[in-house]
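Page 37, continued from 36.
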């Protein structure tokens, strides 16, 4: 399935749309297979999505049948302000009784990657939905340009100079592709140029940034007006 792009007026609109998709998929997956597996993205963009799920959809899904995973984590403790787990916990874990598979980043990239790999679903595809963010440099999860991993599902990673936390753990391209659906939430004008480049590269099957290469089967981009590719993709 090729990429799809859906545009909303603003970031809250993107979050609401993503929440609706996730809830519908969760209800379907639970009805069909008794479980829903969701890989969460980190950073700041998805926070509104997570608070929306907790505030508007707490009763819409049997969250006890939901397993939450992380697309990546910074190698810090769960109380650290840069922890993706902490962001998710504050946004929704106090409300939604889902099972959470945390990446123990505080143990360091190699050990954390090994432990986390052992918690991934045995089923294929692993995830019903994978959430993706995109940095202005085109990274996704913690797959940065030049990342190399060989046939693993979880890998230690290093963010470039300038990132607050450089030691990371990330799902790999193979893991991100092991999904029924991938939703990329991209908002804000600082990403518009990169998004235009990525969408064009993906449409032409070209190489490019990690976001260009993620899940070649297709990604559903949910973007706001500010991130709209000026002059088309
Ligand atoms: C992380 C994320 C990362 C994020 C992008 C976008 O741990 O940083 O998983 O891939 O999605 O960097 O981040 P923002 O949403 O903060 O722009």
């Amino acid at each position: 399935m090729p990429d799809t792009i859906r545009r909303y007026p603003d970031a809250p609109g993107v979050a609401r749309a993503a929440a609706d998709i996730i809830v519908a998929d969760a209800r379907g997956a639970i009805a069909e297979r008794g479980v829903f597996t969701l890989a969460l993205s980190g950073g700041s963009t998805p926070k509104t999505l997570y608070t929306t799920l907790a505030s508007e959809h707490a009763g819409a899904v049997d969250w006890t049948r939901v397993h939450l995973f992380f697309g990546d984590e910074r190698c810090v403790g769960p109380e650290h302000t840069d922890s993706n787990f902490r962001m998710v916990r504050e946004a929704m874990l106090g409300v939604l009784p889902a099972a959470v598979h945390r990446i123990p980043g505080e143990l360091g990239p190699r050990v954390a990657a090994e432990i986390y790999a052992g918690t991934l679903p045995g089923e294929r595809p692993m995830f019903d939905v994978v959430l993706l963010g995109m940095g202005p440099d085109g990274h996704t999860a913690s797959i940065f340009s030049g990342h190399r991993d060989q046939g693993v599902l979880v890998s230690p990673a290093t963010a470039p100079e300038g990132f607050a936390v450089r030691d990371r753990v990330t799902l790999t391209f193979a893991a991100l592709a092991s999904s029924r659906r991938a939703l990329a939430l991209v908002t804000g004008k600082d990403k518009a140029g990169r998004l235009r480049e990525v969408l064009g590269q993906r449409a032409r099957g070209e190489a490019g940034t990690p976001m260009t290469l993620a899940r070649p089967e297709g990604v559903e981009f949910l973007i706001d007006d500010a991130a709209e590719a000026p002059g088309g993709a």
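The longest strand covers residues 179-186. Flag for discussion at group meeting. Residues 152 and 172 are 7 Å apart (CA to CA).
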